[in-house]
Amino acid sequence: MLAFIQVLTSGIAIGCVYGLVALSFVLIYKATETVSFMQGDLLMLGAFAALALHLGLGWPLWLAAPVAVAAAGALGAALERLALRRAIGQPHLVAVLLTFGLGMMMRGGVASVPAAAQDTYRLPFAADTVAFGPLVLASSHLWVVGATFLLAGALAAFFHHTRTGRVLRACSEDARTAALLGWPVARMHTLAWALGAAVAAVAGLLLAPVTFVHLNMGFIALKAFPAAVLGGLTSLPGALLGGVFLGVVEAVAGLVLPEGVKDMVPYALLLLALLLFPQGLGAGRAARASV
């Protein structure tokens, strides 16, 4: 039972990371109807940026982390202004290829630094364990879960209790009507890309103490994308819950099924969900309320 609880906690923690990356997918898709395939690279870049500020420049981690997240958000906004905005009105494949190419450029830029390409690192926080009687849990897992809930609460407050958040929601629901009302749709698109990049960077920082900071850590987005699809690509709560669900199922599958089978679980569940619920599990909720 103790082993099962430890595996379950690990699954929830990695599922929270899946959920945050899925949130970044949904934030962008909901506002711009574009699937961004550079979210995993933004995740990796955010973790390496914090690592460079902390180890390279000697900044304290409590300062390096938010600066890295802010830098990722600024990068997302700049890429939208300079390149991605040109894909508006073009076939969807244009935006997909643009984001894929930009992601490869980010990956190549990091790979050009020998220390980043050849070594793995671990951000030095939440490295201890926490004991609850005979139950011992990794503090990094608890940190990830707690930080995810805080970020989800902050995003909910932003979308429901700030004017900018409400305008972004309105532009996401109906950009044409929002433009007729005089709301700044283009700026809201830029904000959506910035938020998506920042959330991906946060996911990278939370993943860093669970695994290691390395060039391939962004591949986790390939497992987070099914979580976004399970939520219908339009529901922020659906994306987060889909990520946690996939993380738990994957962890339990790794415990009870043969080695390697757990890596098939997200895609098997995705195929099953698309067959049963073509619009996504979160589509019904999204149709009733704007999130």
Q: How many domains is the backbone divided into? A: 1
Element-by-element helix/strand order:
HHHHHEEHHHHHHHH
| Unreliable spans | 284-291
The averaged pLDDT comes out at 86
Q: Oligomer, anyone?
A: single chain
CATH third-tier fold name:
ABC transporter involved in vitamin B12 uptake, BtuC
Helix % is over 70%
Question: Span between N and C termini?
Answer: 37 Å
Q: How many distinct helices? A: 13
Q: Strand tally, please?
A: 2
Adjacency order of strands in the biggest sheet: 1-2
Report the principal-axis shape: globular
Computed over alpha carbons, the radius of gyration is 19 Å
Notes on the protein architecture:
The protein is mainly alpha-helical and 291 residues long. The protein has a single domain (2-288), classed as ABC transporter involved in vitamin B12 uptake, BtuC. The protein is built from 13 helices and 2 strands, in the order αααααββαααααααα. It has helices spanning 2-32, 39-56, 61-82, 92-111, 114-118, 139-161, 163-173, 175-180, 185-207, 221-230, 236-256, 265-276, 283-288, and strands at 129-132, 135-138. Strands 1-2 form a two-stranded antiparallel sheet. A hairpin with a 2-residue loop joins strand 1 and strand 2. Helix 2 (39-56) packs across helix 3. The radius of gyration is 19 Å and the shape is globular.
